[in-house]
Design goal:
The chain is mostly helical. The chain has a single domain, classed as Serine Threonine Protein Phosphatase 5, Tetratricopeptide repeat (Alpha Horseshoe). Helix content is 62%, strand content 2%. The protein has nine helices and two strands, in the order βαααααβαααα. A two-stranded antiparallel ribbon has the order 1-2. α3 (57-71) packs across α4 and α7 (150-165) packs antiparallel against α8 (170-187). The termini are close together.
Amino acid sequence: MGCAGAYRCVAMGSIGREAMEITADHMIHFLERVAERIAERRDELTQLDSPIGDADHGSNLDRGFSAVLARLPALADQDIGAILRNAGTTLVSTVGGSSGPLYGTAFIRAGGILAGKMSANAEDLLAALEAGLEGIIARGKAQPGEKTMIDTIAPCAAAFRAAIADHQDLPEALRRAVAAAEIGMHATIPMLATKGRASYLGERSIGHQDPGATSAFYLIQAFLEIVVEAQGEQ
């Protein structure tokens, strides 16, 4: 099979598989999809946040990603790193509570990894994802198992790394990552919150799905959708 459009075929040693690369245009489409998805899920995220937070997770993220969306046209000729860093700084400056600084830091850290790149392969994306996760952990001073977005993102990153090591192509690696992210999201339901506003509730936080873990899942899911749609362009 030949390569066309936004992809190039890259020999992967003796494996001989074709490596799919995501372009800056795809990253813009991803952010557009995220803004759309968060707007669709705004009320759901707010309802999840109501019993264990400030009931503003959905509205805060909707405001933030709407601002990101408004700035995308000016980034049409920028590299992937610049696009992600712009999204991160926009989220930090427009989203209240903890979600703005946390997501903003993740995008900024990921953008630093992909600085200057007009396309990124699976290994690049893994490095960016892991850098974003490290940024969230450092900024939020949290670890897996504390009922936060980390409980979605950490298993996602681990599954993505394992799939790449298993020589899976990018769409399949992301499918495995999304499946792990979904399991991680649901795993927050029985957890006791020990970080953030939810931690004030003690054992009353048990039995509620974490809103940050849920919004993180929607972001990861949106990226998979963009990759699968792009694959169909080949």
